[in-house]
Amino acid sequence: MFSQKLHPGDDFPQLVALTGDDQPLELADPSRETPWRLIVVYRGRHCPLCTKYLNQVETYRERLLELGVDIIAVSGDSKEQLAEHSSRLEVNFPLGYGLNIAQMQHLGLYVSHPRSEQETDHPFAEPGLFVVNQDGNLHVVDISNNPFVRPELEALVNGIAWIKNPDNHYPIRGTFR
Fold it and tell me: What confidence tier does 3 reach under pLDDT thresholds 50, 70, 90?
């Protein structure tokens, strides 16, 4: 079966995960102060590369906020797995859990089975990164089939700054159908 990918420029789907205190976390719902949103989908607590990447994302949080971009991260982990993982994370952006397989597929993410019960107890999404603009459209997308390939954060943040600079008139790329 082929997976469908989200198309740049389309409305980002209205998907909801849960926060650690069981509040709904709408993936594409940025705050009024930050009209854009960076959504980081990570594999889960079992992935040390995800832990490292999320902690690196935190180091860019202030720069992104200055650009009007807020951050959330979400995985298919359970509430208990998120709680355990949170103890190893040094992030100040919302974390969500409970992304289900249908949601992962709707986002066009690659989904993997665990290698063993020691890794995790459920299929999980491979990394994905989405930037949703003020109109709710998918502006930037990056998906991977493994944890070793993710956007370099300095380049990503500089790219968002370039895109958001009105003098550059930079359109959403990759919209040819």
Answer: low
